[in-house]
Amino acid sequence: MSPAKVLLLIPIHDDWQALQALLAQVQGLTLPQGLKLQALLIDDGSEQAPPAFQRPASGALSGLSILQLARNLGHQGAIAVGLSHLAQAGGAYDAVVVMDGDGEDAPADILRLIDAWDTGGRKGAVFARRDKRSESLVFQFFYRCYQAAYRLLTGHGIAMGNFSLLPKPSLAQLSLYTELWRHYPATVKKARLPVELLATERAPRLQGKSQMNFHRLVLHGLGAIAVHSDIVGVRSLVAILSVLAVCALGGLGLLFALLQHWVVPGWAYLSLMTLSLVALQFLGSALIFSFLTLAGNSPLALHPQKDYKGFVKRIFKVF
Length: 319
What we know:
The chain is α/β, with parallel strands linked by helices. The protein has two domains: 4-228 and 302-317, Alpha-Beta Complex (Spore Coat Polysaccharide Biosynthesis Protein SpsA, Chain A); 230-296. Helix content is 48%, strand content 18%. The chain contains ten helices and eight strands. The protein has helices at 16-27, 75-89, 108-119, 137-154, 168-174, 184-190, 214-227, 229-259, 265-296, 304-307, and strands spanning 4-12, 35-43, 61-69, 95-98, 125-132, 164-167, 195-201, 312-317. Strand 1, helix 1 (16-27) and strand 2 form a beta-alpha-beta unit. Helix 4 (137-154) runs parallel beside helix 7 (214-227) and helix 8 packs antiparallel against helix 9.
């Protein structure tokens, strides 16, 4: 492995015990010669104050900093601020590893991400693909539903989460997308960054209970789909117009049958009224989808590269 400096970007919200256990595991990693690791914690408006981190006498981490947000933005918002800050601040690092702070992203896989990036010539991002998950069967079922809905509405699949490695040059490009506030992995797909998938297994949490529930999963899925609002809007519009075409053909067929005295007039008129009402509803839906699609492309949305600073409370170095 060639010499490299990699920065760990870890969003955290009151999950300090799990984070301390995670950092202890990271400290215990045996790094290849020439590799240096530092960590930037994104404190997502935690109600609990950060613990007093002690500088270890030895370990894999050579530095630790904390960026505190002025308010809670949620997991994806915290990642957006962290990536935008790094894109603007610069610094002597070659890549960023985005990972959760609860231990479900196994520290040992950090080295596997870096090795895959190094083997690939350091040209693109590397994302973890979960071949085996540790969540309950119910959660996994709804997660599969989210993936199916994403594929149906956007036309392509998504098999990656937040755990990933981004080369430094990709940060500036990614922070130009307002969709980064909504969903980091989906924005990477929208930006068409070159991505390699690395098979991993979801590790169990180190401490505490997962904050991901059905409500958060639905919001997470909607955020991913909303990143592709233009594609979703067009695909929905085509589907609606197809239904309108079927209604129009059905209405013309009924009129022809009525003129030819092939059907009972009362039944034909009732069917025509029903088709007209259905057509009007779908026409209204088509107009709504059109306006929502245009609104989703508005340049007035918060821009990560320019607006992230308003959410930063302070940044300080721990060691």
